[in-house]
Design goal:
- The chain is of the alpha+beta class.
- Helix content is about 45%, strand content about 15%.
- It contains 18 helices and twelve strands.
- The strands form four sheets. Strands 2, 6, 7, 8, 9 and 10 form a six-stranded antiparallel beta sheet that branches. A two-stranded antiparallel ribbon has the order 1-3.
- A hairpin with a 2-residue loop joins β4 and β5.
- The longest helix has 23 residues, at about 215-235.
Length: about 475
């Protein structure tokens, strides 16, 4: 361990050891990720390793802490949130020389628990394991799953007593927009400067050489987040709880609570049980991210200029570029999905396809895979999704826009358009089975979604969207 965050002043965190659990049992371990982290996989699977993953043992060199942060949650500001059910064990250096956080989630009460039990039920642990590893396989910047253990105890939730679990998360860092807001709300300029300098050193070292390093930090975070959200949108991913405390400075996807994937394309799709007004609907995500970045920019004003008003012009200039940045990333992503990588498509062609998909309730993931099959001379899959009479005129214009051998283009499309994603009904079924003691659906689904692009006949059912009756009433939950 090499714990740079724990060397910051103690108002940045609370020193906290995880709660002990009665019976730790390893249910999933990511050996490939352990190797990348230069961690002895055999040791982690031993009794001593499982004790660490459950929080029953603190490894040498770890400095367990709960991090302080604030955040806007559904637009309302909470000046103190913090790690209420997570403990940062410390930081390790991976095989590429990158610094990575190791955090236990569901590890008991902390100073920031606000009356909660600090524990996690097995279901949310299974969800985060499946979806974060699927996102990594899809090439999306994300936190990763190192391990999941059950604790042998029950945690109380609305459904009743549920089996407890602890999740080991790996992240580039856990610094959030809300971390900056915590010190901004306290007018702690010294802490803001320390935090900004730490974030620059850890994530954006080039910003230190810029004429104004704090404006450069904002620009770097805005670019990383614009790219990230464009990837979410191209995959039909809905985060579900895009609070500022869930917006990572690193540009990674973090906190897979009430997340979901589109089946039928609908910009207004919302699955989260707590998003009553659709603030974090699929189509709102780019605008919400810009709003979150504006809140980040507010925290930097006093670092950019002695008088905050003098800094507004510089940070506003960065924020004003967000829509253009996002549009460029999304346009490039859609062009690749439609067989024109590196070459922008006619915007009206893209818009017309999206209109057809929305009006027909077309499956987002399935449509793009079926389009590749059309180039191979097979139209049956697309015909099931969108009636031929509705899509044929568009197909003619699209084919006319392509350059090169169409079969090669189809193969290229298959390398960016997944066949298998964590479809909501499959994740839901895996969670329910795991809660009932059967982990096999979880293990099989994880195997499928971590190989998202290559067709296997035995996985055919995993490529199918949920029945409409499931999607119409489906909700996701935070798990706290």
């Amino acid at each position: 361990f090499d714990n740079t965050y724990a060397k910051l002043p103690e108002r940045f965190f609370a020193k906290q050891e995880p709660a002990r659990v009665p019976e730790a049992k390893l249910i999933r371990f990511n050996r490939e990720l352990a190797a990348k982290l230069s961690i002895d996989a055999d040791w982690l699977e031993s009794a001593d390793g499982v004790a660490m993953l459950a929080g029953n043992a603190i490894p040498e060199g770890a400095e367990p802490i709960a991090q302080a942060y604030a955040g806007h949650q559904f637009g309302g500001f909470s000046p103190q949130l913090g790690d209420g059910r997570a403990i940062l064990l410390g930081e390790v250096i991976d095989v590429d020389g990158a610094r990575r956080d190791l955090q236990l989630k569901g590890s008991g009460r902390t100073l920031f628990s606000r009356g909660g039990d600090g524990k996690s039920a097995l279901g949310p642990v299974i969800r985060e394991y499946i979806v974060s590893e699927a996102m990594a396989a899809l090439g999306v910047p994300t936190t990763r799953a190192l391990a999941a253990v059950t604790t042998g105890e029950r945690v109380m939730r609305q459904e009743g007593p549920l089996l407890g679990a602890v999740f080991t998360r790996v992240a580039a860092s856990h610094i959030r927009v809300g971390t900056f807001q915590y010190f901004w709300a306290r007018n702690d300029i010294e802490a803001l400067r320390l935090l900004a300098d730490h974030a620059i050193a850890r994530h954006y070292s080039d910003a230190a050489e810029a004429p104004d390093s704090y404006v450069a930090l904002l620009e770097s975070v805005a670019a990383a987040q614009a790219d990230l959200i464009a990837q979410w949108m191209s995959l039909g991913f809905i985060h579900g709880v895009m609070n500022t405390d869930n917006t990572a400075i690193s540009g990674e996807t973090i906190d897979y609570g009430p997340c979901a994937f589109l089946d039928a394309f609908d910009p207004g799709a919302v699955f989260s049980s707590i998003d009553h007004r659709g603030r974090y609907a699929y189509g709102n995500q780019p605008a919400v991210l810009k709003w979150n970045l504006a809140r980040f920019a507010e925290t930097l004003l006093t670092l950019v200029a002695e008088k905050p008003d003098d800094a507004i012009g510089a940070v506003s200039a960065v924020l004003d570029t967000f829509v253009e940045r996002y549009d460029a990333y999304f346009a490039a992503g859609i062009a690749a999905k439609l067989g024109s990588p590196g070459r922008p498509l006619d915007r009206t062609l893209v818009d017309e396809l999206l209109t057809i998909m929305k009006e027909e309730g077309a499956d987002w993931t399935g449509t793009f895979r079926a389009l590749a099959e059309v180039l191979r001379g097979e139209s049956a899959d697309l015909g099931v999704i969108i009636p031929a009479g509705r899509i044929d005129p568009w197909l003619q214009r699209w084919r006319g826009s392509l350059e090169g051998d169409v079969r090669q283009i189809a193969d290229e499309m298959d390398r960016v358009n997944p066949l298998y994603i964590p479809r909501n009904h499959r994740v839901d079924a895996a969670l329910r089975s795991a809660t009932d003691g059967d982990l096999e659906p979880f293990r099989e689904l994880l195997e499928v979604v971590t190989h998202p692009f290559d067709r296997r006949d035995e996985w055919a059912e995993y490529a199918q969207p949920a029945p409409r009756v499931f999607s119409e009433g489906f909700q996701t939950f935070c798990g706290t």
